[in-house]
Write a structure and sequence with these properties.
mainly alpha
Length: about 140
């Protein structure tokens, strides 16, 4: 495998991580918003505009190009290991979150719907994947 291919895959992995973090923050805002007062509309607009601004900046600065197609695995074995570890972190974060919600469900059972919790779980999964990849690629 050529060094140029490895660099392209590393860049693609970093883009996947940032995209996952952006999606996680957006889903977190969506899942928490119904619990807030209706007076928090400026907070939602600020959060959404900050997300969209950062997302479009990411796309403009060289986000997903036509050359880079999504593959389920990476050609480099080291990047495959990082990806597998990130998925393990996603499962652990999801299990921890579900266990915490189960143990504390008596306190907020009347205020939270199933769709809010499903969106919250998706946000946790996206954030765990993105942060795990960025943490492992920090060197």
């Amino acid at each position: 495998m050529m060094n140029q291919d490895i660099k392209a895959e590393e860049k693609f992995m970093g883009q996947n991580a940032w995209f996952s973090i952006f999606m996680g923050v957006t889903l977190l805002i969506i899942s928490v918003y119904p619990m807030l007062n209706k007076a928090s509309t400026p907070l939602l607009l600020l959060g959404v505009s900050a997300f969209l601004g950062s997302f479009f900046m990411f796309v403009i600065r060289g986000g997903f190009t036509r050359k880079m197609k999504y593959h389920l695995t990476y050609k480099d074995e080291y990047l495959n290991t990082i990806d597998t570890i990130a998925y393990k972190h996603v499962v652990l974060a999801l299990l921890f979150t579900m266990g915490t919600v189960y143990l504390g469900s008596n306190d907020f059972a009347l205020h939270i719907t199933h769709s809010m919790m499903a969106t919250f779980y998706l946000a946790v999964m996206c954030l765990a994947y993105g942060v795990s990849i960025l943490w492992q690629n920090r060197d």
